[in-house]
Amino acid sequence: MENQQQVAIFAALAAMAKMCLCDGIVSDEEHDFLQSMIPAGSGLSVQALLDQVKGRSMSSLCADIPRYEDRFFIALRAYAMAHVDGHFDSREELVFSKLVVELGILPEDVVLIEQTEQSTEDVMVEEASPRLKSLYEDSSFVSN
Fold this sequence. Notes:
The protein has 8 helices and no strands. By secondary structure, the protein is mainly alpha-helical. The protein has a single domain (about 5-135), classed as TerB-like (Orthogonal Bundle). Helix 1 (about 5-20) packs antiparallel against helix 2 (about 30-35) and helix 5 packs across helix 7.
């Protein structure tokens, strides 16, 4: 895994962990979702990740992500984390709003993030949009 990919993955994990902590409760669903995102063999645990992000600002966790496509997927994963337990409260909404500003996510891409999350809740999920595919293909998250 190249260094840029590792930085992007850690930033996404950190943003998701920060989102878990914003309402003061890390639900079982949030814990399990975060666990599923930690790369195998990384030696990182959910608790260690949560401990690393406590007391740090979201901007400091995502400050060194130069690629827009990576920032987009960090925001997408954080938004998914906020919804994994079935509710999106005002604290999570505030943290997400700050995150998209910090990451410089375009307004139309915020809409795409929201639509993507809504489509995963539907029984019939439509094929990913061309914009989403393009962002993914140009990101550090794509497997080479």
